[in-house]
Design brief:
binds zinc ion; 11 helices; two-stranded antiparallel ribbon; 7 strands; alpha/beta
Length: 331
């Protein structure tokens, strides 16, 4: 399952490896500097001895531990100042022997903040990046609300409507963003993005998927074509149970381009019905893009599928109108 828990665990173990690598790098740097400069070598040894000596004394006389530690700090400070001078003198950067870490905020631990432990931005980024490597999610890193560009939509009134296509898409975008921000698993509320090709449906569905994913919920994005393929394979050979399980169990399932998949007798309609019905019974949400309008959906599938997709109590239907913007812009 492409779950956030799994990839977080993976990202944390990457950080653990990073910390080991940091220590090895620090060790190599100390060896290099000591080899270059006998003065540095002597200072490093002094610092080491001081550290162990201080620890021993503090153990031996716990009542004086505070004074010992203050003395030690002062002396270490002096040694470190001398080290910086010697490093510069032998042609190395003065911070060459500072602790090595890739992230200065969390020192490669993945967490920041005291007393409240919070995930560091670097861990969050790593998790998102790993999520995006998964099948169906690769496009999401670039297709998100921040990248949504309404200026590619013509600002001329749509025939028979008061709004321009741009004004219209702006409203739809706001609905989608509010949906993604307010998304709660187990509420079962979904979106149906319907309209002809090139009106921005898939892009906006990706924006929703990205935002919901970023908020920590599990999301699967799959084309209707691939969904049918997966279900067919599963039905006939039992293969791909894991993917089917993901489609049924994720917090949000996004189905792209419903209606474009091949209509295989005894497969397509029942596969789609099965997914929709199982998710509905478990109150799990779907977002669907389709070229069909509601009549088209009832016609192409059957009443059961049509009723689940167009159920006004659960699905918000967003009709996309206007002309194909891909004629002007190549993405
Ligand atoms: Zn960090």
């Amino acid at each position: 399952m492409v779950s956030r828990e799994n990839v977080t665990r993976e990202a944390l173990s990457d950080l653990e490896a990073q910390r080991a690598q940091n220590l090895a790098e620090e060790k190599a740097r100390r060896a290099e500097a000591a080899q270059k400069s006998p003065a540095v070598a002597a200072l490093l040894e002094r610092r080491q001895k001081l550290f162990f000596g201080g620890m021993r004394s503090a153990f031996a006389a716990p009542a004086r531990a505070k004074d010992i530690s203050a003395d030690m700090q002062r002396e270490v400070g002096e040694i470190n100042r001398a080290l910086r001078r010697e490093l510069t003198a032998c042609g190395l950067p003065e911070d060459y022997l500072q602790p090595v870490c890739r992230c200065q905020l969390c020192r490669d631990t993945g967490y920041v903040g005291e007393p409240v432990h919070e995930q560091c931005a670097c861990l969050k980024r790593a998790v998102m990046h790993k999520l995006y490597q998964n099948e169906g999610l690769q496009g999401l890193e670039s297709e998100n609300f921040a990248a949504f560009n309404e200026s590619i939509f013509p600002d001329t009134p749509i025939e028979g409507k008061r709004n321009t296509q741009r004004g219209y898409i702006r409203k739809i975008r706001a609905v989608c963003e509010a949906y993604a921000d307010g998304f709660r698993p187990g509420e079962g509320r979904g979106l149906l993005l319907s309209g002809t090709t090139g009106l921005g449906k898939t892009f906006l569905m990706h924006c929703v998927a990205q935002r919901v994913l970023e908020r920590g919920y599990s999301v699967v994005v799959v084309s209707a074509y691939r969904l049918t393929e997966l279900m067919r394979r599963y039905q006939f050979s039992g293969e791909g149970a894991e993917q089917v399980e993901d489609m049924l169990g994720c917090d949000l399932l996004c189905i792209d381009d419903l209606g474009s998949e091949p209509m295989l007798r005894g497969v397509t309609v029942s596969a789609i019905y099965h997914i929709l019905n199982e998710r509905r019974n478990a109150n799990r949400a779907i977002v669907v893009t389709t070229n069909c309008d509601s009549d088209g959906l009832y016609e192409k599938y059957d009443d059961r599928v049509g009723a689940r997709l167009c159920d006004a109590g659960r699905m918000q239907i967003l009709p996309f109108v206007g002309e194909d913007v891909r004629r002007y812009v190549r993405r």
